[in-house]
Amino acid sequence: MTAIVRGSGGNPANAADEGVCLALGTMGSAESTIASACRTETTFTANGRPVRVELDPRESLLDVLRERLGLTGTKKGCDHGQCGACTVHLNGRRIVSCLTPAVQVNGQAVTTIEGVADADGTLHPLQEAFIDNDALQCGYCTPGQVMSGLACIAEGHAGSDDEIREYLSGNLCRCGAYAGILAAVRETARRLNSPVSEG
Amino acid sequence: MRPFSYAVPATLAEAVSALAASEPGTKILAGGTTLYDLMKLDIEAPPAVVDVHRLAELAAIDTTRPDEFSFGAGARMADVADDPVVRRDFPVLAESLAKAASQQLRNMATVGGNLLQRTRCGYFRGGPAFPCNKREPGSGCSAIGGLDRGHALFGAGDACVATYPGDWAVALLAFDAEIDVIGPRGVRTVAVGDLHVEPGDDPQREHTLAGDELIVRIRVPVTPSGRGSTYHKIRDRESYAFALVSVAAGVAFDDRGVVEDCRIALGGVATRPWRSPAAEAVLIGERLTEATARRAGEQAFAGARPGTGNAFKIELGIRAVGDALRIAGERAGR
User: Fold this and answer.
1) Could you list the residue ranges forming a coiled coil in this record (chain B) (predicted)?
2) Is the pTM above the cut of 0.90?
């Protein structure tokens, strides 16, 4: 059940770095974790599936998702927290995975775009709404837009067009599909929040 | 990115011990949105990192006391920004956080770490191609005479004109906040006004905390001008950008409608969060009108020293002060 992934994260420099690892001295509690610069075992769930990886603390969650777990739906845009393409949910809250050292998600739950649709492939209503509203062109930012849009609705920040625009401002779209993205989030928020349409 | 050793202490006491025993240059990792970013750029290269982002002892938000709000250093920016009591009684604090970064980053970044956010100067972040005294002491400053549109009007020197980029610290400075800091020598309290330093001839030094000291909490005195407050932030785009000019403003009126308390601090225009007591003094004892607000703005920017491309921020800033005071005044009930 548990996926065990070993490797150097595709960075050939890592092997050489192992010679210069330093540890920080002992600490009092058994729960404390001390890692060398080389590897620290990290467990978390990705879309509900348990994962155990041995990580270099330098590795970003984004790189681990894409390069180690094959979850390539999450995209690398700027890799510096400025574009939102790498947005995922950590314990249900949206974060940018590029600025998250993967070791920080130890014991936590990560949800990526691959975990949004039903197991049988039925798309989430927000994904359907992106299609219906032509809310993408090249599609590169779309997984991040969807993850951010889902969180925006769940946070209760989709009450008006202005509020949606504000709370999606961390997700850039170079194609300029913003009007469609706004419409998709607005429509889905109404649908999900309306008791009439539930069930 | 350079290799580093990584420790996750389970308690605050263990974090203090780890920092006390750590080698020089060890960094505290919280939300990671500044440190990890700069490590990717090879601008920060700590030999060791102590990760405090999940220490429960740093997480508390306490807005129940009538005289003081307290925010654990590890509280997330989003949680303080969305706190209903903060939004009602101290809008400047909530707005300064809500207007900083995206919701994703606010979910990650902590209110303690945010105080120590490093400059967004493009030459600093740009790497070795650009001389930068903050990054490489003695190499020079590319911004002086260079592209300095976003750079400081106040607190700059011959070595560095980089702007302090944060918003939260500007709001805290305006309202006399203090931070409690823990280290191997015990706990001490530092006024936010004594936390950041101007670059002088040592631009690498940005604050007065020692390397083995950790911010535990931020305390803000509750005051009537907190309710009559706003954080007014002018950006190149409407959302998700650093300030060209920002103003933390608060006012309180006496029963005759005369200003009895006024707070004005500026962001985006100085090398550190910048309070303007002279501008505050313009309004105290006066009525808040368009004309007196304008005078306060002019006083706030009276000592501005622009470079080659940032003089536009003086008039922009004067107007931003006036607008901020108008919003604050409406909230204060005048």
Assistant:
1) none
2) yes
